[in-house]
């Protein structure tokens, strides 16, 4: 935003006395908030602090408790109905609301409120879609089924769609963790788009757990804790990310001490030439005690390598050896027997039962017993589950709460805890902290370090360069389907990861390697 001496830009969104009470849970407690034209206003808070609830009330998914006042450009805003959303408001929710079975053209067209269905995917829409994608510099074939696009590409389609539905000029744009699955390079592109919209005068409400982004893109920041607004202030009055963490969790963050470099120990996992999907050559050796990272751009294959290694994705070539023994391709059962565990990135869709409780989801796949054994089993589960709930700060800390009623980040914590507590020798984790708040991230890193210290090993794929620097002994960078660079602990920095990630491998495919 411009200097303090110029007159304050007009208020676009004004929220007064906003509260929301769910059964047994007050998600928002008397929140006031103002968003001005031409500002990116970051909304921060721990998982479960009420951010999504606030957004869902604005979007009409939830009604607010009586007594709230919300205005948009000075006029009362219609709340409590998704049927008549404000035309000038664009929302990007965590659940992008796209239809995976349709192609990109149809997904964009559906958002644009075209009346007739029979011309979907017609030439006009195809041209309009191509124009929109190129305006926002999204490099994607509009005729491709959305299901084939990576999560990052899908996010961009959702943003383009939402902005287009406001005729390209939203008064208010609400972005709920849009970068959760985007590597740095794509984040920069997204930020260019966000700045473009801000400079056109949009007020932008930006929810993120990546605190660095607040300093990159934010003009002002509001922190929620336990449903209450703790502060609203200009970003340039915030010292650093540690101060943000203190505001978010209400105490000093626990120091995470990175693990010591691991000694030359036994090779637990060896992959060579693994291929399939976008991956042409994924090779690595992982020793006991190591935490190894895999990163790259969307499309580089970095987000598919672990699924291929495990057997969750169809492997077309290469070899995977566990403890020296070859594991046949596409046999996750054999991989599990040999000591491998794999947590996919799409944890919620692929691996939870939302109707079940936190306890049941955390202890899956144990089958429910019947009779007295069931009761004993539940008591045992509760005892086992509680330390994890406390360790990862699951809110509310209730093992018997239905998983679906937890906030998105808290659901992530529960599912991730399930993998952290299994006794596998090697853990493969895709994007382990995506959507998880700063406090719990540190706890997850501690848990990974503990696993490594027990002589086990972790391989994680991540688009978060800071995370890779914080926890990994070594980071493999993939470009164009293959590992092109290996950064050892001493070489690890955000700048180095980003530059290796975006470097064009055609320049020097061999020189990209580092021993
Ligand atoms: N439909 C619901 N029924 C009951 N409780 C709910 C419901 N939706 C949310 N909650 C509770 O309200 C609180 C706030 O949740 P909300 O989703 O707003 O958090 P959040 O700040 O967006 O978290 P995250 O960072 O994990 O997305 C949480 O304790 C959550 O369990």
From TrEMBL:
Q: Which GO terms describe its molecular function?
A: ATP binding; ATP hydrolysis activity
Top-rank taxon of the source lineage equals Bacteria
Pfam name, any one: ABC_tran
Write down the PROSITE patterns for this protein, in alphabetical order.
ABC_TRANSPORTER_1, ABC_TRANSPORTER_2
Start and end residues of each ABC transporter domain: 13-251, 262-505
Q: What keywords sit in the KW lines?
A: ATP-binding, Cell membrane, Membrane, Nucleotide-binding, Repeat, Sugar transport, Translocase, Transport
Q: Which PANTHER family match?
A: CARBOHYDRATE TRANSPORT ATP-BINDING PROTEIN MG119-RELATED, D-ALLOSE IMPORT ATP-BINDING PROTEIN ALSA-RELATED
Record-given protein name? Ribose/galactose/methyl galactoside import ATP-binding protein 3
